[in-house]
Amino acid sequence: MEIEWVLAFVSLGLFAGFMAGLLGIGGGGIMVPILTSIFLAQGIAPQYVVHLALGTSMTSIVMTSISSTRAHHARGGVLWPIVKAMAPGVVLGTFSATFLAARISSLYLAIFFALFMGYVALNMLRPKKAVIVQKKDISNTELLAVGGGIGAISALVSIGGGSLTVPYLNSRNIELKRAIGTSAAVGLPISAAGAIGYLINSQPQLELPFAVGMVYLPGVILISIASFLTAPLGAKLAHKLPVAILKKVFAVLLILLSVKMMLSVIYA
């Protein structure tokens, strides 16, 4: 691999890890659009770039998910009974959706990604309102079904599911800190099942050295190492920087990156 691509993957990992630590959001929202641009610049056919970006991003999230889960567990922030109830649905939904993603064109995947990230960004931009909680206990059946839906969407946009799991748990009368910690733990089976699914799926005629299925392994290694180094720094600075303002800037960045990715696929 040429040095410029090594630097590109490392820089992406450094930035994604820092933003994930700082804002609790990152992962696919940053990595998928930028990976799409990198793969296009490497000369990979446009019909494969989004699939490869999704798979590479999802696999890169595994190490971050492990680190985040351990940190929240150490602080008693994970409700493991909820994680265990959601896990089967999450794994099934995520794994199945990778097979769906393999059969959807890059354009439709890019459109779905852009629409979802637009939804995430708008939620970050609008003023927070008090959450109306439901007092009824959550059944395991509900958690199983919700987990399946969260897993499927997460696989199609390559995220750890936090933007869906946290609001859901918070709306079901779980305090925000524990909702975040539990969501981080749910993100581990999402990323693991998604990584396996993207590794065993493949695109016909995609000839790229060191690519397995829809995952570019050198990219995964470089991004994972770099993000592992900067995520703790972002988390540390979260208490010193104006996070509320940064979230608004990040939301605009998500929209711009998603639109750029969609246009890149359309006009490639």
From TrEMBL:
Alphabetically sorted, this entry's keywords are: Cell membrane, Membrane, Transmembrane, Transmembrane helix
Q: Does the keyword Transcription regulation apply?
A: no
UniProt cross-references to Pfam families, sorted A to Z: TauE
- Tell me the organism: Shewanella glacialipiscicola
Family per similarity comment: Belongs to the 4-toluene sulfonate uptake permease (TSUP) (TC 2.A.102) family.
State the superkingdom. Bacteria
**Ranges annotated as spanning the membrane:** 6-36, 48-66, 78-100, 107-125, 145-168, 180-200, 212-233, 245-267
Question: What start and end residues bound the annotated signal peptide?
Answer: none
Q: What protein name does the entry list?
A: Probable membrane transporter protein
Q: What is its main location?
A: membrane
- Where is the protein situated, by its record's location annotation? Cell membrane; Membrane
- Membrane topology designation: Multi-pass membrane protein
Q: Taxonomic classification, please?
A: Bacteria, Pseudomonadati, Pseudomonadota, Gammaproteobacteria, Alteromonadales
